Please model this.
Amino acid sequence: MSFAPPQNYRILFLDMDSYFASVEQQVQANLRGVPIVVTPYVSPTGCIISPSKNAKKLGIKTGMLVKEAQAIYPKVIVQEARPELYIFFHHQIVKLLNNLTPFVRVMSVDEMSLVLSPSERNIACCQKIACTIKNQMRQRVGDFLTCSIGIGPNQFIAKTASEINKPNGFYTCGLDNLKTFYQQLKLRDLPGINFNIEKKLNFLGIKTPTDLYQADQLYLLKNLKHMGKIWYFRLRGYETDIFTSRRQTVGHSFVLPPELREIKCLKKVLAKLAFKIGYRLRKEKLQAGAISLIIKTLPFGTLKTYCRLPLVCDSQRITWAACHLLNKLPSNFKPIALYLTAYNLNRSAHQLPLFDCQKKIENISKLMDKINDKYGSQTITSGNLLESDAIAPNRISFGEPK
Ligand SMILES: [Mg+2]
Model:
């Protein structure tokens, strides 16, 4: 595999600062002066998914529990997440970027990257574009919203650069100052290096990003196989991370709040996840050949099961399959979280259903999509989903919001 050669100042990476919390402070001006945290549900054991900028200054971090934040600052405001609101602002941000360049990639609800044109790949232009984005963000999207911008030869370095000088940061990393760039970072500052990879690298005598940058290509290849090769080129500015990849799976997961950890609630959430998977399969013109269900439980730990499917994309049969999987499991557990994943995916464009009844079921799903796309999600829905929204409100998953 060969990677595209490095080109200076090619990628601009934008990361919104404390995104969910800042949007809340944008729409609720009275919350701007006080530390707030956003959590999927309000409870002392709720996990913080976004602390505000002023909460971060006090030492409150993403991933902490609400009670841990309250131990740091008892008066911290706890706000339940409102995904629709964050997606609304996300679309405004993407619109703003699309007006500046046609080459916008949406990485997640609060991260986007732009490919700069060859004439823009110099420090003066980069600074001008970053200033324009930040000013327009304040004027057109929200005066309380800030973003951090990193510029680099590839997606990886631009993203890493965006983390420096947060919040409201701006940092450019050119090919001629890679060495100085890595000197100011720790291994765990590099996106993709988690605790386990850090341990492995330390074992190989690699303790800092500079060590990794200077490591011999063959040494990395021998000890880390393909990943070693990727790290070698990635740190030198080759593009190793932007591909038009073919989707392998379509999945959704949900963590049940403590008071709803019962099988009857699990069943309702399962039906909702199955419908969401069906919708995404149809949108991406895919059919699933298999489905798996993983449930984290007490006292059995993680339960896993799967079954094959006759290439389907309608929500009805995916729901039946999901219920079938659930019935294969013991029924006396306390569910904590569930993950439903469709895989063995096929492009459906050239596949026609074999039987008429199959075609009818698919058509019902497609018709429901049309109505919901036109008049708003869940204008028409299945009867078994009526109560599931209260249990499983829509949340934002990783990747590009739909
Ligand atoms: Mg962010």
Q: What stands out?
A: The pocket of magnesium ion is lined by residues 15-16, 19, 110 (CB under 6 Å). The CA atoms of residues 299 and 333 lie 6 Å apart.
